[in-house]
What we know:
The structure is a homodimer of 446-residue chains.
Chain A: H1 6-14, H2 21-33, H3 38-51, H4 55-66, E1 82-86, H5 94-104, E2 109-112, H6 123-128, H7 139-149, E3 151-154, H8 162-172, H9 180-192, E4 198-205, H10 214-230, E5 234-241, E6 249-250, H11 252-263, H12 269-285, H13 292-304, H14 307-318, E7 337-342, E8 347-352, H15 354-363, E9 380-383, E10 390-391, E11 396-402, H16 408-418, E12 419-422, E13 432-437, E14 440-443
Parallel strand pairs in A: 1-4, 2-3, 4-5
Antiparallel strand pairs in A: 5-13, 6-9, 7-11, 8-10, 8-12, 9-11, 13-14
Helix pairs in contact in A: 1-3, 2-4, 4-9, 4-10, 5-11, 5-12, 5-14, 7-14, 9-10, 12-13, 15-16
Amino acid sequence: MPNYNMPELIKRKRDGKSLSREEIVFWIDGYVKGVIPDYQVSALLMAIFIRGMEPREVADLTQIMMHSGETISLAGVDGVKIDKHSTGGVGDKVSFIVAPLVAACGVKAPMISGRGLGHTGGTLDKLESIPGFNVSLDSAEMRDVLQKTGMMICGQTADIVPADKKIYALRDITATVESLPLIASSIMSKKLALLTDGLVLDVKTGKGAFMQTEEDALALCRALVDIGNRAGRKTIGLITGMDQPLGRAVGNSLEIIESIQCLKNSGPADLMEVSLAVASAMLVAGEAVAHISEARSKIEDALQSGRALSVFRSFIEAQDGDPRVCDDYSLLPCSSVREDFSAASEGFIEAIDARSIGELCVEAGAGRRKIDDAIDYGAGFYFHKKVGDPVAAGESVVTIHIAGKEKIPFIKERLRAAITIGQSRVPSATMVRCFVDRDGKRPWPV
Amino acid sequence: MPNYNMPELIKRKRDGKSLSREEIVFWIDGYVKGVIPDYQVSALLMAIFIRGMEPREVADLTQIMMHSGETISLAGVDGVKIDKHSTGGVGDKVSFIVAPLVAACGVKAPMISGRGLGHTGGTLDKLESIPGFNVSLDSAEMRDVLQKTGMMICGQTADIVPADKKIYALRDITATVESLPLIASSIMSKKLALLTDGLVLDVKTGKGAFMQTEEDALALCRALVDIGNRAGRKTIGLITGMDQPLGRAVGNSLEIIESIQCLKNSGPADLMEVSLAVASAMLVAGEAVAHISEARSKIEDALQSGRALSVFRSFIEAQDGDPRVCDDYSLLPCSSVREDFSAASEGFIEAIDARSIGELCVEAGAGRRKIDDAIDYGAGFYFHKKVGDPVAAGESVVTIHIAGKEKIPFIKERLRAAITIGQSRVPSATMVRCFVDRDGKRPWPV
Lengths: 446, 446
C-alpha cells in the first residue's frame, strides 16, 4: 500500500477534495491500530463534517469500517436472508411482526439489535420480557435458529466494527455527530457486518424521530440505500411517520402482546400499515416477488393462515423463550398498578408527542436513563385513543401501567402536556410516505 | 466565569457562529492547563480554518494567547517605544537600520527577534557575528539597554505565549497552519507580549516571501494592523517587495556590514527605500511626527549627522559587542574563499530568485537546516548586479563567500538557475507598495 501522510490527507478533505479508497483504508486502519492519534482524526472528522463526502467515499468508508472487525457469516443457511433496520421510534415493534411474516413467505429474516437508552425502547429488552428468552447467541447459534425457524433476533456478541466504536466516541466529544456521511456510514457498517443478501431500512420522520423533517429523513434514507446497494446488498428504504407512538402499546411486554395481536391480524391500523409495507419491501429485496404490488397477497396469506404466528412461536422456542405467551398473555410480566388518564374535556386527540411519551416510559420504569439501569418489563402505556379519535370528557385516553402509585400524579401532569385535545379533527396521517430503491424515491403505495 | 462546554463551543464555530471573549478564554486557558485535550482543540482549529473568525474574535484570541504566559514590561524606560516586525525575507537587515534611525529621532526601538531556520536568515544570528555580542538579556537588562541607547534587540528568554507553542505544534500536524486568523494571532500574540506603545509591521510580498501575492500580503497586513490597534497599540503596516534579495548582501556578517553602510548613508537604493519607509512609519506610530510626510527630513538628518550610526555603536557596546566593527569591518568574521559568479552572456538581470538564494545561503554554511546546526558567520553572497542592471559577458554578478572550495561548482550551477539574464531591461520594482493603518490601505509615498 502506498505510504500516505495524515496531515496531507486532512488537508485534501479540508480543501473539499475527495479521498480515495486507499486513503480511507490508511486512516481507518491506522486509527484502529492506534498509530494515528485522536487529534488528527478529530480534525479530519470536522473537515468531513463541513465539506461532506461524495457517495463513493461514503460507500468506501462504510465498507472499510465494516472490515475493521469481525463479520457474521450466514453461509450454510438455506435461502435468501434479508435484514431490517429502523432508525428508531416510540412504540416501534415492527421487527417482531415483519420477521415472522416474511419468514412465512420464504425469505429468512435475521436481525442484530440493541437495547434501549433514553426515549426509544430496545428490541432486545422487549424480547427479554418473554420468560426465558435468550438474546445472546454466537454465530453458530444464530445460523441454527435462522435455519430452523426462518428468523432470528439477537444482540451483538462478536467484535463487529471496532472502528465505529472508536470513531463514534470521538465524534461525541468533538461536535461531529450530526453529519450525514458519518451517521450513514456508522449505521450501515454495523448492519453490513451481518452478511445478508439484502436490507430494508425503515427511516422514521416526525417529532419523535431522529430526523424530524421528511426532507432530512429522505436524505438519510437515500444515503443508506446507496451505501447498501454499492456494497452489493439489495437495499430498499421506506420513510414512515413517527409523530405519535406507533400502535397503541408502549413498553416492553405490552409491545410483545401488541405484536402477537398483529400476527393474529388484529393489530392497530397504523402499525399494520407500516409492518405490511416493510414486509413487502423485504420480499422484494429477497426477490420472493418481482414487484412490491405482488407482495401484499402473499403477506395477507401468511397472516390469515396463522403461518406467521407459528414462525414467531417457534422463534421464541428456539431462543429458549416460553412460546405459550402467544396464547396466554398473563405469562408475560405485568404491572400491579393500572391507572387511567382521562380527557378533561370533550374533543378530538390532536397530537400525542412521541418523544415525551418515550421519556415518560423511562419515568414509569420501562426504559433506561443509564446503561446499567434495571427495567420494569411490565411498565408502559396503552393508548385507547390516537390522533384523530373523538373523546368524551372523562373518557380514558391512555392506561398507565406501573409498579407503584407514587409517580402517577407527576406522569399524569406530563401526559396532559404531551397529549393535545382540541376541537379540530386532525386527519390521520399516511404512515408510509414513500419508498426509496437504487433508482430513487418512489410513491407509496405502488 | 460561566462554565462552558467544549463540544458546544466547537459546534458553534463549526456552524459558522462567532465565539465570545469568554468562550475563547475558556478553551485557551483549558488547553494550556491540559484540561482540554488535543483532539477537541484540533476539531475546533479545523472549524476555525474553514469557517474563519471575525476581526473581534481574532483580536480577542490574540490577547488571550498573549496573556497565557509572561509579558515584558518596559515601564521605567523614558519615552515612547515602538517595536518593528517583518514577516521574513532574504537579505532583510532592516531592523539594524531603522532602530538606530528612529532612536536618533527620539522614539525608542525595542525588538525581540529569532534565529534563522531554512531559507530566511535570523536577526540574532546576524548580530552574533559581531564579536562579543550578547543576545540573551533578561527583562531588566532589556530596559537598561533600551533606556541607555534608545534601541535593543535580543532573543526570547521569558516564557512568553505558551498557548502559541502548544497550538502551533498541533496545527502543524493537523493541516491547520495556513489560516489567516490563526497565522495573525500567532504572530501578534508574541509581538504584543513585549509591552510597547506601538508596532510597525513590514509584510513582505513576492517570490521570496511567505505571502507570495500582494493580495494575500494585504489581507495578512490588515489582520495584523487590526489586531494591534484593537489591543490599544498604535499599529501601522507596510507591504514591501521580496522578489529578489533585499540589498546586495546576504549572510550574517555581510549583512551587518551593509547595515553599517546604510547608517553611513551609502547603502543600496532598495534597502534604503524600505528602511526609510519603515522608520517613517515608526515615527508616526510613536507620534514623533504628525504625518508620514513629515518623517523624511527628521530621518535624513539623523542619518546625515551620523547620530544614527552613533546609536548603533552604543547599542553594540551595551550588548557586549565590539563597536569598532562600525569602522573596521575586518574585525567581523569573513570567509577565506571568495569566488565570483559571472554572467555567461551579455544582457540584463531579469530576476534573482530570493528563495533560491536563501536556500543556497544555507548550502554555503550561513544558515541552518536543523535547529542545532552551526553557522559560518562569514559565509554568504554579495550581489554586484541586481534586477534591471545591464551585465557584460564574463562580468561578475555575485561574489560567493564560503569557507572551502568543494561546494562552489554546485552553488554556481544553482546560481545559474536562480539568476535570469535576458535581453529585456526589467524596470526596477517599487519596493514599498502601500501602507496600512487603522483607517485602511493608503498609497505610498504619501
